[in-house]
Specification:
Structural class: mainly alpha
Number of domains: 1
Number of strands: 0
Shape: globular
Number of helices: 8
Radius of gyration: 13 Å
Amino acid sequence: MISTTIMRNQNLISEHVWNTFLKGPGIFDVKKMPENTVKKIVKSDAQFKLLNYLDQKIADQFSGIVKSVLENTASWQKLVTKGDFLHNKLPDDFTEKISDFGKLLLNKVFSPESVLM
């Protein structure tokens, strides 16, 4: 908690990203959400909604991630099975795009039980 406070004070974690982590997705256009055809790895509607929110509203890091998960499911499945988004290469160049804190948000999408609040 102390490290995230320091990171927020240094603007390394924006208030928007922080609030998304704490509260989940805010208001966004759910009509743009495709059908969840990857329920083996994004198990609940709430998790899929969060993934779509990240794609639409935190686009600097997550733009295209829904398409990637839907089209490159096998690679994402392997990563979800490993359960470590921080130390493993993400598919489709997301390793470089997504911050370490953003990778924690991915844990919340794919394995919400691993993120205790």
